[in-house]
Amino acid sequence: MRIPAHSVCTAIRDDIVAGVYERGGRLTEELLARRYGVSRVPVREALRTLEAEGFVVTRRHAGACVAEPTEQEAADLLEMRMLLEPLGAARAAQRRTEAHLKVLRGLVRLGQERSRRGNSEDLRSLGGWFHETLAQASGSPALTSTLAQLRHKIAWMYAVEAPANPAESWAEHGGIVDAVARGDSERARAITALHTERASAVHRLRFPGGGGGRPERVRTSQRPVNMTGLRH
User: Fold this and answer.
1) Long-range contacts formed by 17-24: CB under 8 A, 24+ apart
2) CA distance linking residue 177 with residue 133, whole number of Å
3) Angstrom distance (rounded) from CA 118 to CA 120
4) Share of the chain above pLDDT 90, in %
5) What global pTM score does this model have?
6) Cβ–Cβ under 8 Å, residues 147 and 131
7) So what's the pLDDT on residue 230?
8) 65 strand-pairing partners
9) What tens digit of pLDDT does each residue of 28-63 get?
């Protein structure tokens, strides 16, 4: 059975994000085909897709290699997310379905429960699912796809510290869902903007200065998030 190129693409992308392939390292079609148990055709297609997404570059005499993004490129990704996540939330308030609301509310309940137990790994996964579902609720495939790519690339370039107060973070998630449920796009946008800015402040570059070493704290124009003023 022929394995589709998008499945191979997902596998290679996940391994790049996980650090299986070093930044700047070569990605030969033959070795990739052997690793994933496929022919070179879907590997070739997958590499073209990953190059368009910015995970792979083609170099003369070397072929496909893992990209080596600069600190500025990494910072730009966080800025893009801070602009697009609030837009997605505002659109979700206008276009969400009851199915979206059911999933979002369920994730908030789980997140609040896990935050009381202090399980940071569970919370990270739940947070990812929450924002993915919120993007899907925007009703915009282009926006959903762009945000998904941003999440993958940010996970590759940054390590994320656990929030100091996970219960407060999940209270913000709950506030976003409440606004989306009421169809209040401006409130959904405002809470999401504050939440995303706070989240960006706990990201640390995995490769500061283009090399190894200690992850560097991301500098943002973070303002304290005052949820009191955002609650009804």
Assistant:
1) 17/152, 17/155, 17/156, 21/66, 22/66, 23/66, 23/67, 23/68, 23/207, 24/65, 24/66, 24/68
2) 11
3) 6
4) 74
5) 0.80
6) yes
7) 45
8) 26, 57
9) 999 999 999 999 999 999 999 999 999 999 998 889
pLDDT value of residue 82: 96
Residue whose token pair is 């979700």? 92
Using only C-alpha atoms, what is the Rg of the chain? 19
Q: Which pair of tokens denotes residue 89?
A: 């939330």
CA distance 225 to 159: 22
The arithmetic mean of pLDDT across residues 165-174, rounded, is 92
Q: In what order do the strands lie in the sheet with 203-205?
A: 158-160, 203-205, 216-217
SS (H, E, C) 203-224: EEECCHHHCCCCCEECCCCCCC
Mean pLDDT of 198-208: 87
- How much is the pLDDT for 45? 95
Is residue 3 within 8 Å of residue 11, measured between CB atoms? no
> Residue type at 61?
H
Residue 216, pLDDT > 80, answer no
Identify the pLDDT of residue 219. 38
